[in-house]
Amino acid sequence: MHVTRLGLTPLKGTRHAERSAVELAAHGPDGDRVFCLVDPGRERVVRTVEAPTLMSTRVDWDGTRLTARLPGARASGVPRPTGRRIRVDYWGRGADLEVVEGPWADAFGQLLGHEVLLARTSRAGEVVYAGPVSLVTSSSMRRLAEASGHRVDPAAFRATVAVDTGTAPPHVEDGWAGRRLRLGEAEVEVRGPLPRCAVVDRDPVSGERAAGLLTCLGGYRRVAGQILFGVDAVVTRPGRVVAGDPVEVCEARLPLGRG
Questions:
Q1: Which of 85, 101, 121 is the last residue of a domain?
Q2: Pairing of strands 133-137, 161-164
Q3: Using an 8 Å Cβ cutoff, are 52 and 93 in contact?
Q4: N or C: which end of the chain has fewer CB within 10 A?
């Protein structure tokens, strides 16, 4: 097995950009979902499934400068801390954020058609739905492609790591729960299957409605009311992962709780 794709996004909801290499820090992929947009009227993090046009924007973050390329606009600069801290809803749980100043709120507000704030997360994983690392496999994507009759782009699942699993059966990754994976220099421990939403039915570059993958997937991967695809994980040994790196399943351990 080996890594075929790596990806992340510095600003939650924007295009999940492919990377040739990713640094997996103790908290997760370095530079992933450092920022998010907040709807101040609803006091919650802007949801990609409700604002899919965000996927048409590309955001880069070098640790100092944040650059967003939107349709017909560009916003770039150094985010300035305001000292204004807010607690908002993120899919039913509270997220503690700090509002930052710069040109991004206006640019994204015009794109979305309503006021937004740009905020920086106070800790890693603050606006990540599940574990900080997510993985999908070629075996499972092949099964979905056969069932749907459409090519399945791994970018549609916005996973940190896509793994070529060769001739392994579909959803082989389910059996990795509670086990460790070596990915290049890094190591992660898999927690379990990931619930999916309608974002997978959107083109990962334009955000426009594409093939109805979620309905198809729900026909054979619905468990306790949730549609599952791929797995999430936590980092147990930080390190650099490069596209093409080998992936090795290590010994089993007790499954981690999902709390």
A1: 121
A2: parallel
A3: no
A4: C
Residue 159 belongs to a domain with what CATH number?
Answer: 2.40.33.20
**Domain containing 40: what range?**
34-121
Do 103 and 176 have their domain in common? no
Residue 28 has which token pair? 């997760």
52: helix, strand or coil: helix
In the three-class reduction of DSSP (H, G, I as helix; E, B as strand; rest coil), residue 5 is classed as: strand
pTM of the model: 0.88
pLDDT at 253: 56
Asked whether the predicted pLDDT for residue 254 surpasses 50, the reply is no
Q: Which among 49, 238, 38 has a CA at the least distance from the CA of 121?
A: 38
Burial 77-116 (b: 16+ CB within 10 A, else e): eebeeeeeeeebebeeeebebebbebebbebbeebbeeeb
* pLDDT tens digits for range 200-244: 888 888 888 887 889 999 999 998 889 999 999 999 999 999 999
Domain boundary residue, one of 121, 143, 163:
121
26 located within any domain: no
Across 60-89, average pLDDT? 95
Q: State both tokens at 128.
A: 């990540």
Tokens of 68: 């967003």
Report, as an integer, the average pLDDT of 108-128.
90
Q: Are residues 140 and 246 in the same domain?
A: yes
Average pLDDT, the chain: 92
If asked whether residues 136 and 248 sit together in one domain, one would say: yes
DSSP, collapsed to helix, strand or coil, labels residue 69 as strand
Provide the 10 A C-beta neighbour count for residue 28: 25
